[in-house]
Design brief:
Strand 8 and strand 9 form a beta hairpin. The strands form three sheets. The protein has a six-stranded antiparallel sheet with strand order 4-5-6-9-8-7. The protein contains eight helices and ten strands. With about 240 residues, it is an alpha+beta fold. Helix 1 packs across helix 3 and helix 2 crosses helix 3.
Length: about 240
């Protein structure tokens, strides 16, 4: 029986969160208090809290305790190429774009590596914070080859760069490769986003190609980890030899 207490703790607290008895931002009782309540060890309580964190129910802040997350997260599609403006319209989000920088710069070593170009080749660097429902929770850092995108402006960046690329420049944007990771927040993240006590951030790297297979854009899209769940749709393929 004792070995299953951590599951009982997990089930009790996840049930309370799902039913709204513990709302977003609520601080959970301390490990000591939960230990006394369930008559178990701190190791068992930590195991239960870690499981709650893994399932996205709570956020553990070192030295401060555990806090309930907003489980009504926004679905963020992994596949497909869709602009922020299109996504906002699709999901009915109340959004604003805050442009921090639009500048033509020499590509540093890291950007040059990502775009497969020589170091110091000119690129457009665009940095924008995305506000959704009153909070700045996405930081988009875009790099475009200036040989493909000859001109950009703050006005274009504040509306939709993709509308400009496809509508004005008539670029044929075809496909993208994406990579998702979790990284420690940076000073830039803290300056431009409403991060509260979060120390990690979800990073989606996009490598965007034109119809002729030219890699012309590299983007780091940095998301506050409590606000999104990254979703995809998979279809089972029948009739193939699978392991």
């Amino acid at each position: 029986m004792n070995k299953n207490i951590y599951l009982q703790i997990f089930n009790d607290y996840s049930d309370k969160i799902q039913k709204g008895q513990l709302v977003h931002g609520t601080k959970l009782p301390s490990e000591n208090d939960i230990t006394v309540e369930y008559g178990t060890s701190r190791e068992t309580v930590r195991k239960a809290l870690n499981l709650l964190a893994q399932y996205g129910y709570i956020h553990k802040v070192r030295g401060k305790g555990s806090y309930v997350l907003d489980i009504g997260r926004m679905d963020f599609p992994i596949t497909g190429l869709i602009s922020f403006k299109q996504m906002s319209k699709k999901f009915g989000w109340d959004t604003k774009t805050h442009v921090d920088e639009v500048k033509r710069v020499p590509a540093n070593a890291e950007v040059a590596r990502q775009l497969h170009i020589p170091a110091n080749e000119p690129v457009w660097r665009v940095t924008r914070a995305r506000e959704i429902e009153g909070e700045r929770i996405i930081l988009d850092k875009d790099y475009f080859l200036s040989s493909i995108v000859e001109q950009l402006s703050e006005e274009i960046a504040s509306h939709s760069i993709y509308e400009y690329l496809e509508g004005v420049l008539q670029l044929k944007i075809s496909y993208a490769k994406k990579e998702i990771s979790v990284e420690e927040v940076t000073a830039e993240d803290r300056r431009l986003l409403d991060l509260h006590d979060f120390n990690h951030i979800v990073v989606v790297k996009n490598y965007v190609f034109l119809e002729n297979t030219t890699l012309f854009q590299f983007t780091e899209s940095r998301h506050r980890l409590d606000k999104f769940q990254f979703v995809d749709f998979a279809r089972r393929v029948h009739g193939e030899d699978l392991p």
